[in-house]
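JOB MANIFEST
job_type = single_chain_structure
chain_count = 1
residues = 239
[input]
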Amino acid sequence: AISNFTDLEILEREPDVVVNYLSRPSQLDDGYDCLVIPGTKNVMEDADWLRKRGWRKTIYQFLSQGRIVMGICGGYQLLGQTIKDPYEIESKRAEVKGLGVLPLQTVLEREKIVREVRGICLANGKHIVGYEIHMGRTRPTTNSGEPYLRIHGVNRRNWWNDGWIREDRQVMGTYVHGIFDAPGFRADFLNRIRVSKGLKQRPARRGRLVRFREYDKLADHFEAHCDVERILEVMSELK
């Protein structure tokens, strides 16, 4: 089951981007340029689900065509080789295989990590802002590739590496939710795809401003179709 749908919401606001949510590997055809595997509520179960449904083979074929695959949080864990659950947090099974497109091993731990983070993407130098909420730690099993982000928490004194990106730059993953909300990062990520398709690059768009405009539209729609004065009267009567 997918969690944190908001990670991809901002991409839907880009004028030349179409976001679709796929449930079957047969839906991932040549019309797609990038696959983003979002957060998951149970990574152990979903690792089995992806493999049994044939997603592993489909993703390898997708990558062989030069496409991009990215994982966020649970999706990042799924891109690795193995996921271990020694404390039976999500499953009675001690270990499951991941998709195997990144050289990573994840161990689920009892402590849940919840924190706001900031930093830079080491692959393009762009600033990012977001948050982590996950159980488990992920470490590389080889030196093939490099960390994707360099981030810090509220206290800037402590910095650490996050995520991983393959040497060919086709596969990357991170624990940071909200990473696409950073205008510079989002523009660079999408422009790489645009250039590969022979399209014109686009400047960064202020994600928060776009979101606020949508909130304004929702407020206008609410006021146009609801009796706001009557609602306020009822609320005052209940006090």
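[summary]
The mean pLDDT is 91.
The helical segments are 6-9, 43-52, 55-64, 74-78, 183-196, 207-225, 228-238.
exit_status = 0
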